[in-house]
Amino acid sequence: MQRSASFEVKAYPELWKVLDIDIERLDKMRMVLGEVYEKHFLSQENRPKGMAYFDWVISEIHGGRIKEILEAKREGRVVVGIFCIYIPEEIILALDGICIGLCGGSPGTIPDAEKILPRNICPMVKSAFGFKIAKVCPYFQSVDFVCGETTCDAKKKTWEILNEYISTYVMEIPQMKREHDKRLWLEEVKLFIEKMESLSKKKLTLERLLEGIKIMNAKRKALQRLNNLRSFNPALISGKDCLLIEQIAFYDDPIRFTKKVNELCDELEERVKRGEGVKDPQALRIMVSGTPMALPNWKLHNIVESLGGVVVNEESCIGTRYFKDLMPEDFSDLESALKALVDRYMKIDCSCFTPNDERVEQVLKEYRDSKAEGIIYYSLAFCHTYNIEAYKIQKACEKEGIPFLFIETDYSPEDIGQIQTRIEAFFETIRERRR
After folding, report:
1. In what order do the strands lie in the sheet with 79-82?
2. d(Cα 80, Cα 376) in Å, to the nearest integer?
3. How many CA atoms within 13 Å lie on the side-chain side of 376?
4. Measured distance CA(34)–CA(19) in Å, rounded
């Protein structure tokens, strides 16, 4: 396989200076990212050519996309940082805004956060907060405001402190799905529209909203198409490449991203015709379920695939939960469109909801659709809702005879050896079932 001798994540020191970035520290993080990326991604055999675009996105992660965002701001567009797929991107796009995911997936900024936040809360929250207070995230430094939400206690209390560093707007997410919960959510959506209208100096119309819906539908259809192609054996693309694409979805230009995902899918469909793949047909097919994996958290996928498995599905907010549901595109008035938008977002089966039986059913459906042979339930430490909900998922898997492994971890590399040992044993149980 041909590849460059050294992968470079490009430096933009002058741009970083304008953004008041800690240049020396970000430069060190940039170099580490390049080394890790080359080791885990560019070393893969028979990698699809279409992944070159996503490699380019990573090479420009600290500058190229930032320059696009800053140019959009100069044109008067509003840039919104988000931490949850419950924030309605359709509305941001409808008002000519840009939506950027800000969840943290690196351990590097957690010590910064722990100077203020408790140690025993979610590493994703600490990582994201740390990126802001340490001034090492060009995206955090570029957004006009961030939109938090109330999906967990750690988040909703952190937003109060984050507001001291950057303007933080919070949406109240109902924790149940009764009719009056939907009415509450509709009111929250309308308040968010008012916020966006005041900043963008634009008025939301049905035509504008339909345009936002069409952009998001196209993006989600492309991701659905990619995910469906993962059901083929031999695997057409590695699980970690698919995870990377899902992570990039949260900050790349949505129209360009959609085009590149569809081009990749065209290439993968040609591989189907040729019977060509990136893994041995005997590779163990693993579905991952649980908490989202924010960039650059590739820990579990690296372990699974280094041991001869292939990840064929992510049931998480970074995976199918983000793109599984589409929106209608034919409405006669704005109010009916907003109600349909609320219905679409209420289908999200985040573990913050109670009861959450639809998530159990969705996990089983995705397991069957992906032709997986076992489920690894991944939970970040101190993520209480996902930790507790693992009990119901495990019971459902036992009833269906599905091999199940629960992994609770954080972003540290310290437990990699222990996780490898547990996954090796899990793989052996699956191999026994094959015999």
Report:
1. 98-101, 79-82, 145-149, 168-171
2. 33
3. 31
4. 22
